[in-house]
């Protein structure tokens, strides 16, 4: 738990979010400013600032996140048409919340390349 971290506060229920999935290691909740009809954030409960801070010991956790995302996406109705998964890292990646999170975006066609 990092005390000045918004997502740690969501994990801790110090600030509200509509938790749509939770297990021992991750939680998922809708993004507060959705960029698509469905926009879910999937985050590790443990505070990891960004992808550059992930270590080999986190391999199981990262694998767990990746195998959980399609289940969450399916629950959100995205299984048939698909979805986009994005991890923004540091400034050039457009990261604004410094607690590792995967964006799951769907409900419309996603253009490529991103802006
Ligand atoms: P990024 O730019 O990749 O760091 O994405 C951070 C996302 O987090 C951004 O799309 C908005 C979202 N966000 C920021 N604060 C909150 C919050 O308090 N609650 C929720 N649900 N989402 C938040």
Outline the structure in words.
This protein is α+β, with helices and mostly antiparallel strands and 115 residues long. It has one domain (6-106): HIT family, subunit A. The chain has helices at 6-11, 59-75, 90-93; strands at 21-22, 26-30, 38-44, 83-86, 102-106. A five-stranded antiparallel sheet has the order 1-2-3-5-4, with helices on one face. A hairpin with a 3-residue loop joins strand 1 and strand 2 (26-30). The radius of gyration is 14 Å and the shape is globular. The protein starts with 5 loop residues before the first helix and ends in a 9-residue tail after the last strand. The model has no long low-confidence stretch (mean pLDDT 97). The site of 2'-deoxyguanosine-5'-monophosphate has 14 residues, from strand 2.
List keywords for this structure.
115 residues, alpha+beta, HIT family, subunit A, five-stranded antiparallel β-sheet, globular, binds 2'-deoxyguanosine-5'-monophosphate
Secondary structure: elements and pairs:
Blueprint: H1 6-11, E1 21-22, E2 26-30, E3 38-44, H2 59-75, E4 83-86, H3 90-93, E5 102-106
Antiparallel strand pairs: 1-2, 2-3, 3-5, 4-5
Instruction: Report the CATH topology name.
Output: HIT family, subunit A
Order of helices and strands: HEEEHEHE
Runs with pLDDT <50, length 5+?
none
Helix amount, in percent? 10-25%
CATH class: Alpha Beta
CATH architecture heading = 2-Layer Sandwich
Q: Into which percentage range does the β-strand content fall? A: 15-25%
Write the CATH homologous superfamily. Answer: HIT-like
Class per helix and strand makeup: alpha+beta
What is the alpha-carbon Rg in Å?
A: 14 Å
Biggest sheet: strands, sense, closure?
5 strands, antiparallel
Mean pLDDT: 97
Sheet with the most strands: spatial strand order = 1-2-3-5-4
Shape: globular
What small ligands are held by the chains? 2'-deoxyguanosine-5'-monophosphate
């Amino acid at each position: 738990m990092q005390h000045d971290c918004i997502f740690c506060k969501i994990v801790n229920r110090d600030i509200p979010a509509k938790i749509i999935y939770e297990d021992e290691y991750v939680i998922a909740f809708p993004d507060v400013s959705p960029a698509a009809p469905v926009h879910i954030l999937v985050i590790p409960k443990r505070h990891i600032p960004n992808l550059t801070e992930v270590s080999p010991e986190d391999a199981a956790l990262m694998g767990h996140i990746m195998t959980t995302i399609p289940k969450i996406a399916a629950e959100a109705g995205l299984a048939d048409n698909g979805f986009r998964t994005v991890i923004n890292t540091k400034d050039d990646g457009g990261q604004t919340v410094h607690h590792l999170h995967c964006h799951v975006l769907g409900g419309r066609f996603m253009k490529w390349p991103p802006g």
